[in-house]
Write a structure and sequence with these properties.
- The structure is a homodimer of 398-residue chains.
- By secondary structure, the first copy, chain A, is an alpha/beta fold.
- Chain A folds into two domains: 266 residues, 3-Layer(aba) Sandwich (Rossmann fold); 96 residues, Rna Polymerase Sigma Factor, Chain: A (Orthogonal Bundle).
- In chain A, 34% of the residues lie in helices and 15% in strands.
- Chain A is built from twelve helices and 14 strands.
- In chain A, the strands form four sheets. An eight-stranded mixed β-sheet of chain A has the order 1-4-8-5-11-12-13-14, sandwiched between helices.
- Chain A is globular, with a radius of gyration of 21 Å.
- The N terminus of chain A is likely disordered.
- Chains A and B meet through helix 4, helix 5, helix 6, helix 7 and helix 8 of A and helix 4, helix 5, helix 6, helix 7 and helix 8 of B.
Chain lengths: 398, 398
């Protein structure tokens, strides 16, 4: 194991260890990784965009690769609505790799032989970072709805504390898909001098009414569950059914008409039931299974807070995105997918156009994919090619 | 008032009456109309496709215009998921016109000066026809989940009883949008000799996994509401919140990205609330309002049964739609809308292609509209032009 530099910067090296995966795959993947936790409770408490305060604030994060001496090779990778800090490699005793393991590792798009990759969980979340399920130090109980409303700007502000802590002055890149892309855009809007490049994928600069509407359905579904109990369920049964329906809606929007057709067709499940409205079609069983399991890893109140933060997201905000971007030195690689109907390509085109209007260097790529919004997690080859080339160019221009 | 011919065939004439509408509009609209109810309880009880029996069966329906002596000018118009028999004109004391009033009336697409237009409610519904909220004669209580599962084929079979009762041997046309279009297609599949033409609009011959998935979310939402109580809520509080969320999902799928943007933008509602997760954006308020009001006119169990019938709908069913259509003499006018992502145009193209392959005369029209699936209720001018011309041609070829 190569030596790390400070908390959280222990490198995750290659592995020769036996695992559940074949040797060929293993050779290209990171080994066992760990999640770290950075807590800051400065003299001045963290102030949210809404004017409320929060202290202490903890962010869960992971790092992969080694930070170079000049600290010029750090890339911040940011996750979508229900993601977490575990972006790559494996956790001890767990067979599931990180959510972007196909993109982060030795020789991969975010090449850990070249770059120091950081993945930070979001403020408001429930995967190790401060959120509504965290203990409110004033009461000794979970915040629940006493947690302040947060925005994507707040998420990014908390991450800036983390990047400060890691001693990194300028990030080589900030990248992410979906809500991760919103955070990437917010980074360049909030801290333009701290970012050399941005890779927003399958995302938007302003959340549309349709996108708000889908999130609102999820929230209403959670709040309609009597177990939600105005957010106070941490001592009892959580609103699992409400969260399950919210997750089902989400899953539909992440896939495409075509990918659903290919995955399920109109096939029936094997087991038929005597109850009339039990799932009969495979697609129903899949959605119900995914919905019901979601409660095991996600806090319903976090779902409310994070979807709300997404809905507030609006870098355009009347004046136009190009005004936000004027004077920005960072380069952009904007990626969209043709079959993504949740964050349709025209929203990414709008980002690229705003860059041009603001005189910011931007590459726009619209990839053919039938995977819908999920494509940013699945279309590895095309994305890798674009990202690798882009990062090399940015790195070379240092 | 011109004389009618038998129950339900009383003509609704033009009106000169003062109303809430302007004279110009009034001159082109039907006056006060009434809903009729046809109940059949033959010696042989109605058998569903699933092999269960039902008796008696009532269908609510309305008629507009006059049936000619040869009974060759009858058009059956069929409604979508939450529609009813009230397609045109006004009910006494009610300011809302029928759901397709813009298309049905003197001089309109379905010209009541020329044609005798019938609109039938569906079996399984809750707007006057036999459904899960009807009294089960065996128990004296509402059927609830003892109501048999029904299919679109069952809906159409019940309508055939109504058409028999009206003494109509062959319908000039069967027309409808969305689920109404499925019924129109089913009419030609079940009773090809009874139909001279078909106008399926914004519909499909086979319900796709994505379409099933959206319906399943609605069902899960209803069934997750504790007030649903396994369908036994007729003596108490209905599952209004579950139904509301189901309706919200529906509304999103009926609109387009663009139409939502035009209607709501990212505008905030005027009234701000102290509760964090109250609707703030106009789109949220609209969906919540529409969702909450839905319980006033729709039975949650009917929502379960009808969505299930839609999900079962599959005229392709392995062998291909062209096999169903082979030998069919009816002409088709297939209409789709470019921005309809719930029933995308490629599904209508598939119907038109199957017609060609089966040697059935079909016209396919894909209309430019930004209204999404709702376009079949809104795009009056373009549809009227197509429908008028088509019906004249069919009528002339008698």
């Amino acid at each position: 194991m190569r030596g790390g530099i400070g908390q959280g910067m222990r490198a995750s090296g290659h592995t020769g260890a036996e695992g559940t995966k074949g040797a060929a795959e293993e050779a290209e993947s990171l080994a066992i990784v760990e999640t770290y936790y950075y807590t800051f409770a400065s003299e001045e408490p963290f102030e949210t965009e809404g004017g409320e305060t929060l202290s202490p604030v903890t962010l869960a994060y992971e790092t992969y690769g080694i930070l170079n001496a000049a600290k010029t090779n750090a890339i911040l990778v940011l996750h979508a609505l229900t993601g977490d800090a575990h972006a790559a490699g494996w956790h001890e005793g767990n067979k599931s790799p990180g959510w972007w393991d196909s993109m982060i590792g030795p020789g991969k798009a975010f090449d850990t032989d070249r770059y120091f990759v950081i993945c930070s969980n979001v403020l408001g979340g429930c995967r190790g970072s401060t959120g509504p399920s965290s203990i409110n130090p004033r009461t000794g109980k979970p915040y629940a709805l006493n947690f302040p409303l947060i925005t994507v700007q707040d998420m990014v502000k908390a991450q800036r504390h983390l990047i400060d802590h890691l001693g990194i002055d300028r990030l080589l890149s900030v990248a992410g898909g979906s809500m991760g892309g919103m955070q990437a855009l917010q980074w360049v809007a909030s801290y333009p001098e701290r970012v050399r490049s941005v890779i927003p994928i399958a995302t938007t600069a302003t959340h549309s009414p349709q996108q708000i509407a889908f999130n609102e359905v999820g929230r209403q579904s959670i709040m309609a569950d009597p177990n939600w109990n105005d957010g106070n369920y941490y001592d009892g049964e959580p609103p699992a059914r409400g969260l399950s329906v919210a997750r089902m809606v989400g899953h539909i929007t992440y896939m495409s008409d075509i990918s659903m057709g290919e995955k399920f067709g109109r096939r029936f499940k094997n087991s038929r039931s005597s109850f009339k409205f039990d799932p009969e079609f495979e697609v129903e069983g899949y959605l119900q299974y995914r919905g019901e399991n979601f409660i095991k890893r996600f806090d319903p109140n976090s779902y409310l807070y994070i979807t709300k933060a997404i809905d507030y997201f609006d870098l355009v905000n009347g004046r136009g995105l190009q005004e936000v971007l004027r004077g920005v030195k960072a380069r952009f690689l904007v990626i969209a997918f043709k079959s993504d109907w949740l964050y349709p390509a025209h929203q990414s085109q709008e980002i690229a156009r705003a860059c041009k209007r603001a005189g910011v260097e931007a590459t726009y790529a619209e990839l053919n994919s039938t995977w819908g919004h999920d494509a940013f997690l699945i279309e590895v080859d095309q994305q890798s090619h674009l990202v690798k080339h882009f990062l090399k160019k940015v790195m070379a221009s240092a």
